[in-house]
């Protein structure tokens, strides 16, 4: 009685203290181990499970103790035992949920065994066939989620695949022959969980084989059909409400985005391109991009088709990005290029404000066009002037909102990528140039954010390497691949050819007509060194973090890259004039010689600067080496002193003659110390009394 305890001077313990006592008492694993002995005693088993549920929900420590005792496996193996009350399965499921929230990896490791997966599926199947109450439906979905989280074997999930196809595909499986859904919220949730399970299991090749056998692709494409296209079939799916149908449609599209690229043969057999393009036409025909939508996949438009369009375009992008010619050709044969161009410009004329979803749709459409047209001349012609107008329109929008955070940066990049649909076709190229497309591309290059410099300089990788150091490593790797002449330390080996690559050296020994383009200029078209030089022009060449002396050797070359490249061009001009038999007039010849000499002198100065850097490095290395040797000498000297001290100590304790001499020294030292104490005492007496001691004879 608490009142009597308080009156007796006792105080109740706190709940936290009682919880600690429970954790230290090993009550939870003890109760768990008792389950095996209570198989035929449901009256005792149920309260025990209720207690375990409370313990697992109140403390992570209790969950850990239960898991250490193989609790998840034990609960799963006993969850389907005979139970008149029907509560054992409910409490067992709650315990598994608590354990999953505490340590999902360990729970998955215990329940992923076939011995545990089968009871879970049996419990799910029992609830699916017999459950009718709201609590039964919730329990069914909870069991499905647990199975989804822990199951690893696709062969044991065949029933889930059958159930995910239920309603869309006619099945002769006896499990679904008499199955009926009430089309409640819990039934919709189960359907979405089954579709999500298809995505999770698609990573396994064996699961894909089951998908083929159970016609999963056809079921998914049936779900994504627009209402007008699916109304011709009087199927059970029409009993879903409009909001529920929309959620299932979006979930099926999200599933297709992962599954379709893995099952291209089934996708093409089921005419997936045609089905998705029909859905896209339906979305455009609705012409509504406003309002509030249904479901978690909706971008936000009730009565709108923006979410369906977004997910449909995602699926098409995932399929076309594979580069499978038969798939892409099927797209083009259905007029996809013109259809997509029309959708883009239609969305640009829409009065609604651009949001993240709209920008993603535009960007994905441009990437699809790029994948379709980049390597095919006929498709570039189909892209034509309408495609050029589209690209010019988006390039003219400029880069002012590049850093807005809504996705304008991706849209600009996809627009630039879409220019590949133009390059290579003379008619579209000329039209693009006439529309000042090249100038617009240069404007995109000028995009710069002053805040980016500090972020680049402060960046470090996992090993502590800075951005300038990484760029210099890339520079050296590029020069090594291009076989640029360098000495052992990475410095300039030939001042006449400071940055000349091996391919240019070979070309310089051959005779080419002067009408050909400059090799030094053509080398800049796909030159990593030029890009690195441009980045360093933004970062600067002074006070860069994380650079050693050897890095500064490479940096000195990077700094003069443009001067060296200009010298290469002038050297080519002089060589071509000589090959053509043209002798410049005296002032021009003197100017040309002076320019070439200045370029060589610049290379020599850089080489001298590199030698100075390396000499300074050698001096620092020599100083560090000398300091190291000094430390080593000091270390050995200390070891010698320690050895001598140890020898003296050993001799004192082991040599009798030395012990006698030492004993004599100690006695003399003690006598001397005693006399000193006596003298000090007498001096103290004289100092304190002011008189002489006649006894001590002290004066």
TrEMBL record:
It comes from Cyclopterus lumpus (Lumpsucker). It comes from the Eukaryota. GO terms for biological process: olfactory behavior; positive regulation of flagellated sperm motility; response to odorant. Residues 6-573 form the Cilia- and flagella-associated protein 69 ARM repeats domain. Signal peptide: none annotated. The lineage of its organism: Eukaryota, Metazoa, Chordata, Craniata, Vertebrata. GO terms for cellular component: non-motile cilium; sperm midpiece. Gene3D superfamilies: Leucine-rich Repeat Variant. This is Cilia- and flagella-associated protein 69 ARM repeats domain-containing protein. InterPro entries: ARM-like, ARM-type_fold, CFA69, CFA69_ARM_dom.
